[in-house]
């Protein structure tokens, strides 16, 4: 895991929770496991368990990973949130790779363009980046830890990583 403050290994139950606008809980009680081609899968229930065990349902994603309520989010801060989120998804078992070493292959990079934002996904062994569709990245300072936008981001990210891993074989 990275060096940010929002690590899965560190529960933040001692911090004040944010109340306020939620973009809706995107995860139900059922276990959803999606296996993408290429040896990567997502198990959303593990993420739900992590968030609920640490009472983070109303916590906003960017505040959790940046350690403060953001006002104007920079490209560096977006990038940090993506990396920390991905590390936590792996740490809590929400995203798994088979074989496990494949997780070290994945590199993510936030890209801000004039009219859109996206995340580039690439493999260390195959440096040609595959940008995710511009409408793919819509996480912002209002997204909560169980928000529907976060759920969609996790599924799409795993699908794209799976496609890259499959193509690399």
Can you offer a commentary on this structure?
The strands form 2 sheets. This protein has a 3-stranded antiparallel sheet. It has one domain (33-168). It contains 4 helices and 6 strands, in the order ββαααββββα. It is of the alpha+beta class and 169 residues long. 32% of the residues lie in helices and 18% in strands. The protein has helices at 44-53, 61-66, 75-91, 148-168, and strands at 33-36, 40-43, 95-97, 106-112, 117-123, 126-131. 31% of the residues are buried. It starts with 32 loop residues before the first strand and ends with a helix.
Which structural category do the helix and sheet elements fall into? alpha+beta
Oligomeric nature of the chains:
single chain
Biggest sheet strand order reads 1-2-3
Q: Kindly estimate the percentage of residues that lie in beta strands according to DSSP.
A: 15-25%
Count the helices. How many? Answer: 4
Strand and helix map with partners:
Elements: E1 33-36, E2 40-43, H1 44-53, H2 61-66, H3 75-91, E3 95-97, E4 106-112, E5 117-123, E6 126-131, H4 148-168
Antiparallel strand pairs: 1-2, 2-3, 4-5, 5-6
Offer a quick outline of the entry:
With about 170 residues, the protein is an alpha+beta fold. The protein is built from 4 helices and 6 strands, in the order ββαααββββα.
């Amino acid at each position: 895991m990275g060096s940010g403050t929002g690590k899965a290994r560190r529960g933040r139950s001692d911090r004040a929770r944010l109340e306020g606008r939620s973009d809706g809980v995107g995860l139900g009680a059922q276990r959803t496991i999606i296996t993408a081609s290429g040896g990567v899968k997502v198990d959303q229930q593990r993420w739900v368990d992590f968030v609920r065990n640490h009472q983070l349902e109303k916590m906003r994603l960017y505040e959790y990973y940046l350690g403060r309520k953001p006002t104007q989010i920079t490209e560096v801060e977006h990038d940090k949130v993506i990396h920390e989120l991905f590390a936590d998804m792996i740490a809590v078992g929400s995203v798994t790779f088979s074989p496990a070493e494949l997780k070290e292959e994945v590199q993510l990079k936030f890209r801000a363009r004039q009219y859109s934002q996206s995340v580039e996904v690439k493999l260390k062994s195959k440096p040609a980046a595959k940008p995710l569709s511009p409408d793919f990245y819509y996480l912002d300072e209002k997204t909560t830890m169980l928000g529907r936008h976060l759920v969609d981001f996790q599924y799409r990210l795993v699908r794209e990583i799976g496609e890259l891993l499959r193509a690399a074989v």
